[in-house]
## 1
Amino acid sequence: MSDHAILALILFLTVGGQLSFFLSISKLKQWADEIATGVVDGVAVSPRHRSMSLWTTFMPLNFFVGVYLLLLAIGYVLLAQSIADPNARFLGYLIAGFSGLSFLGMMALGTMQLIYLLTVLRGTEKA
């Protein structure tokens, strides 16, 4: 595969990956708000339902998005290694680094959100 084809593939994967990432982040924010407030589509839900939503919808998607970013980063590195032109290879590595940093950020933010939501749910159970 030519350098241009590999670079085009990296850029295509980046655009597609970012679109799916942003859609997933939007859904995660919606679910976090619903779990924190206890209101889903204008209807109050029980603390048990909120806890179940945390563990069966919010956390699995959060984990999936983080792993997805890590896999993208690894894939970008593997693709970039095949590029002969040093400038194009650098761009591939740069995109891989960005995806790797996004993975780390996702794991850190996911952990922070989990702690926050557990704290909110514990406060709800005591009330």
Note: The CA atoms of residues 82 and 114 lie 39 Å apart.
## 2
Amino acid sequence: MKAFVIVPFDGVADGEVIPRRFDVGEEIGGALAAVALREKWAAEHPLDHDADGKPGGSLPKAGRGKKGKAAI
């Protein structure tokens, strides 16, 4: 999950132990992004459509790993 900070706040990024100030416009991820979204300190990342932390969307499970002709 990724998000952009819309309200400055103090927090601890995933994998860190020292809190710091996150300013407007910063990109955040992981559990920090989830909390910031819930508290309305951040907005969803416009390219993370399926909240997996990667741009775009993922293929449905049925379409993963299959080779051959595409269904038309």
Note: The chain has one domain: 2-56.
## 3
Amino acid sequence: MTFSVTQNGKPLSKKKYTWDPETKTFSTNEVNLVLDFSGMDGVTFNTGWYCTFNTGGYCTFNTGGDCTFRTGGGCTFNTGGGCTFNTSGECTFNTGGWCTFNTGGGCTFNTSGHCTFNTGGWCTFTCGGNCYVTRWDVKGVTEIPEGKTIKLRKYGVKGYDEVKPPHTIVIDGKEITLSEESYEELKKSLS
């Protein structure tokens, strides 16, 4: 597995990071890095702020903010704010605010406010205020309601539906999660 990591244009000393080839985990506390793991899937990154990532898909990012990501699909991002994401679809984003997202469809976004999203359909959003999504498949802009969870309609269909949070009930000490519809049906059957 070949990769490169530079800081301020120079290769990062191997003493400043760890790389576990068995688990494909890269870890450092360093900032201002350029990490080139092009074509490498399934890598976990633990880094500081102001980093730029070039990777394959199905990676996990645990970083500070103000990072730039160019990845394949199926990735999970746990970051601070001020990041820019250019990814394929089916990704999960748990970020701070002031981020820009250019993604495919089927992504999940849990962010603070002031974010901009350029996506396809089937994406789910839970955001702070002042967030907007531009859908490339229907050529439209939608304001995302603050504090609510919405899911965009399928590819080529404008609009969104509000997603109600699931209900959890306990039966014989086991927690069972029910959708809003299942919960309402159960309530009706017990009345």
Note: The chain has a mean pLDDT of 89.
## 4
Amino acid sequence: MVTTLLLYLTTVIQLKDGYKISLALLFLIAGVFEYVLSLYAPNQFKDNWWLIVVVLFMAFEIILLIVTNTISKKIK
């Protein structure tokens, strides 16, 4: 769900074309990776390294989108 939201935000936010294409591809690959990790994750919250990795990966994607948006606004 987060990956779908990030892909939607990538198309809505005014980014340069190169950033849109590369971020969309990156988020798509990351979404598949997160989905596969989620399939093998244990059903517990305590000591769940898969869940920690997925959450950190999503946070990295969000930070990457924010940084890319900031850089894209500065480039004219």
Note: Residues 2-71 form one domain.
